[in-house]
Write a structure and sequence with these properties.
Helix content is about 35%, strand content about 25%. The protein contains 14 helices and 22 strands. The strands form five sheets. Strands 1, 2, 3, 4, 5, 6 and 17 form a seven-stranded mixed sheet that branches. A five-stranded parallel sheet has the order 8-15-9-10-11. The longest helix is centred in the first third of the chain and has 25 residues. The radius of gyration is 24 Å and the shape is globular. The relative contact order is 0.12. The chain binds flavin-adenine dinucleotide and nicotinamide-adenine-dinucleotide (NAD). The site of nicotinamide-adenine-dinucleotide (NAD) has 25 residues, from helix 6 and strand 18.
């Protein structure tokens, strides 16, 4: 029986990054993946394909809605949706091939099949075809990720009532797309189809969209998306979604208990994701999951069983690729006897709509709840010369700083290229910068990042220069 120092189960961004770091640190490493294609949710049916379609649809949107104002006439525009989906698939294939290469380069044994525990040090690998076999290991890292969630009455048939996975590979552009859930997936994939001409209706249970982010961001995003034609039905409780032929009907109750009915040709269910542990044989080693199905881990990502760790979407915390990656590196370094560190408060969150939304640290609601005395500074993009030049004047940057020490406690952005700009806030907060520090750092002119400096000046001393 082949013996390894570490076996990683699951090849998503948590698992494959963990395997690379283990190999870099000199451990004999195997990576088990049940699908042929490495990369997990993120590379195959998540981050990468969704961003490919967001980019394609944004090009179309700009060409049809904005080029003329820039003085560019395009004539009649046409969407080749099959080509759009084909390009997305090619981006995925290239990205996945890159992971195969990285595994070879780092001499990681990739074992294709379902990994399940026989005991704490023995794992069974069952390939789709061929015979199952066992391997021996000193340590195991569970990185089995998550799957789309749904509630009774909205069970996806994967044809008309779809999850994000199907929404990334449709054969036609929906005429009327109903989206259940005004969270990250609902708004990103809703944006893709709204830009391509679908009438998109978002049905959300709560009274706000992107509810986990600072409230200012959700309000501004809803305002902009509404302007672009998306409809929002907040505080609606979905009761039943049904399909007859090509027509999907959604029945819900609004906040006053009034019955609401809407129809469409597709309904995207985007009400969160659930941790995935099926077939792992956790019972064989006595590992328990919590009420939400997550594997319980301590601060070092150790499970209750010696030598078994768990990372990424299958454990508590944000379900984000970069969080899974950081945890993968953490566990590898911890197993190698190092003293790694992750500050989960400083994991940024991004929504890739346009304008983009990005956030790090505490929200204003969290600071209020924690009775923290804070100062607020903000700067609207309409006051930025760079934003006017590119016609991206929606949105703002908000900086929250400690009332006494001026330390930055949270940064919340909605606007052009916020996804990339949030990195400056993360660096600043990792180094415990004050709002005044940012206000005194030179930011190139004209750039969108000047809005961060101005918001910091506003937070630190109410002395923004351009408002
Ligand atoms: P996963 O990526 O889910 O990988 C788990 C892997 O384990 C899978 O390949 C699975 O097949 C395998 N596996 C499971 N059980 C077994 C077993 N018993 N044996 C062998 N293999 C097994 N996050 C971001 O940060 N940015 C984004 O822009 C973003 N966009 C997203 C868009 C969409 C549409 C979706 C659905 C998600 C998006 N996410 C994004 C979230 C991101 O994809 C996840 O947070 C991330 O993939 C989690 O990584 P992971 O390694 O924990 O698990
Ligand atoms: P989410 O948690 O972001 O949003 C789910 C939304 O559905 C919430 O607003 C919630 O209030 C609502 N909801 C829940 N039950 C409902 C019901 N019965 N009726 C109506 N609304 C209901 O989840 P998601 O959008 O499905 O995304 C899943 C995960 O994938 C998220 O944790 C996210 O972090 C990750 N993801 C990240 C990115 C990114 O980083 N850009 C992109 C896509 C997905």
């Amino acid at each position: 029986m082949e013996k390894y120092d570490v076996v990683v189960i699951g090849s998503g961004p948590g698992g494959y990054v963990c395997a690379i770091r283990c190999a870099q640190l000199g451990m004999k490493t195997a990576l088990i993946e049940k699908y042929q294609s490495l990369g997990g949710t993120c590379l195959n049916v998540g981050c990468i394909p969704s961003k490919a379609l967001l980019d394609s649809s944004e090009h179309y949107h700009n060409a049809s809605k904005r080029f003329e104002k820039h003085g560019i006439k395009t004539g009649t525009l046409e969407i080749d949706f099959a080509q759009m989906i084909k390009r997305k698939s090619e981006v995925v294939e290239q990205t996945v091939a890159g992971i195969d290469f990285l595994m070879k380069k780092n001499k990681i044994d990739v074992l294709r099949g379902v990994g399940s525990f026989v005991s704490a040090n023995e794992i069974n690998v069952t390939p789709e075809k061929g015979k199952a076999f066992k391997i021996e290991t000193t340590n195991t890292v569970i990185a089995t990720g998550s799957k789309p969630n749904f509630f009774p009455g909205m069970e996806p048939d994967k044809k008309r009532i779809i999850t994000s996975t199907e929404a990334l590979s449709l054969s036609e552009i929906p005429k009327q797309l109903i989206v259940i859930g005004g969270g990250v997936i609902g708004l990103e994939l809703g944006s893709v189809y709204a830009r391509l001409g679908s009438q998109v209706s978002v049905v959300e249970f709560l009274d706000k969209i992107v509810p986990t982010m600072d409230e200012t961001l959700g309000k501004e995003l809803q305002r902009v998306l509404k302007k672009e034609g998306m409809k929002f039905f907040l505080e609606h409780r979905v009761e039943k979604v049904s399909v007859k032929g090509k027509v999907v009907t959604l029945k819900a109750k609004d906040k006053n208990g009034k019955a609401v009915e809407m129809t469409g040709d597709y309904c995207l269910v985007a009400v969160g994701r659930k941790p995935y542990t099926e077939g792992l044989g956790l019972d064989k080693v006595g590992i328990k999951t919590d009420k939400a199905g997550r594997i319980e881990v301590d601060d070092n990502l150790k499970t209750s069983v010696r030598g078994i760790y768990a990372i990424g979407d299958v454990v508590r915390g944000a379900m984000l690729a970069h969080k899974a990656e950081e945890e993968g590196v953490y566990v590898a370094e911890f197993m190698a006897g190092q003293k790694p560190h992750i500050d989960h408060n400083l994991i940024p969150g991004v929504v890739y709509t346009w304008p983009e939304v990005a956030s790090v640290g505490k929200t204003e609601e969290q600071l209020k709840e924690g009775n923290v005395a804070y100062k607020v500074g903000s700067f609207p993009f309409r006051a930025s010369g760079r934003a006017r030049a590119s016609m991206d004047i929606d949105g703002l940057i908000k900086v929250l700083a400690d009332e006494k020490t001026d330390e930055i406690l949270g940064v919340h952005m909605i606007g052009p290229r916020a996804a990339d700009m949030i990195a400056e806030a993360v660096v600043a907060m990792e180094f415990k910068a004050s709002a005044e520090d940012i206000g005194r750092i030179t930011h190139a002119h004209p750039t969108f990042t000047e809005a961060f400096k101005e918001a910091a000046l506003d937070a630190s001393d109410k002395r923004a220069l351009h408002t």
